[in-house]
Amino acid sequence: MKKLLFFSVCSLCFFHSFHLKAQEIIKVDTVSAVSPVKQTPSEKMRDFVHMEEARVCNELRSFATEYIFKDPAFIEAAKERNTRQVAKAASKYAKILAKEYDADFLFYHPNTRFFVRVNDKSYRGRMRLPADLISSSSACFWERLPSQDVVYSMLIKVDDEKAGFLKISKKLPRMVTNIPDILSEYGKVRVYTALDKTGLKKMAWFKMRHREPNKTKYSGWCTAENLAFLTSIGSGEQYAKKIQKKLLALSDENKDFVYPDLKLSGGVMPLFALNEERLGAIVYTITPFSEDKKIDAQNEQEENEALSEENTENILYRFFD
Questions:
Q1: Residue among 73, 98, 72, 95 nearest 84 (CA)
Q2: Is 196 helix (H, G, I), strand (E, B) or coil?
């Protein structure tokens, strides 16, 4: 009996000790949550533009496959390579794309070199499609059109390669309309679209800028750098021409920059074609909210000086309307 009692006590002690050790083994410290690293304005803008590219690409591709390619009149005309009938059948879709998707161009390529623009009889010409795109069923990319417009394009085969290709393009200024809101937490934002002057005809640039609704105030052709501003939007200050030239110089050399004289910071996202040629860039500037009044006073005098220069340039625009 004593042995049995002794064995029971020892067993209880052993199990109690094992239970305590087991508790020690499974006990873990609570891992403190790591706060996410805040994005810089440049990172946030680049992420947004890439998401916008994906969204536009998917929307335009879906529209083409769900509507245009299910139109018997369009498919029959495309198989016969009848560009007039293709344009006639696609005319209503061009209007929908312009209204609902802000797409500026709807092109039909009966082959890899020749193209026509739907709803514009005078807009046709030759533009060779990149060879690496011809083998794929669809692709999205940045390009410069013969009109000199920099656009984001969605190219898709019509039924099969022999029927040609359909291309829907959206101008660069329309791709940046929401960036000021995306960066508004950092201060007052101004977003510029800039074109690379390599291969860009000066008179074409004058025409393009003159017809843009959001053309850059006091902007001119800057001969010192390889970028030229086209449009700008946002709540940030519209700077005088000599300041814009300084911004062009900073944009051409750096992905992120600071303009100490105006307490101004900014960044650049270059845009490249499939062959790695730079076509243009998206440039933003941010003014801290506390610096607004100082900049307004400093910029007033420079704007007055630039006004006379702007009036002189407007005379040139009339020659190219």
A1: 73
A2: strand
For residue 240, CA distances in Å to 196, 245, 299 come to 21, 9, 7
Q: Specify the pLDDT at position 25.
A: 41
Sheet holding 278-287, edge to edge: 227-234, 188-196, 278-287, 264-272, 256-259
CA gap 106, 283 in Å, rounded = 27
Radius of gyration of the chain from its Cα atoms, rounded to whole angstroms: 30
Instruction: Give the phi and the psi of residue 171 in degrees, each rounded to 5.
Output: -65, 150
Please report how the helices 292-319 and 241-253 are oriented relative to each other, as an axis angle in degrees rounded to 10: 100
**Contacts of 9 by beta carbon, 8 Å cutoff, 6+ apart:** none
18 vs 214, higher pLDDT: 214
DSSP state of 1: -
pLDDT at 162 over 50: yes
Specify whether the CB–CB gap between 214 and 231 falls below 8 A: yes
* pLDDT given for residue 238 in this prediction: 86
CA–CA gap between residue 254 and residue 251 (Å, rounded): 6
Strand 105-109 versus strand 256-259 pairing type: unpaired
Q: Which is higher by pLDDT, 18 or 50?
A: 50
pTM given for the model: 0.80
Other beta carbons within 10 Å of 81: 14
Residue 296 has pLDDT above 60, yes or no: no
* Cβ-based neighbours of 12, under 8 Å, separated by 6 or more: none
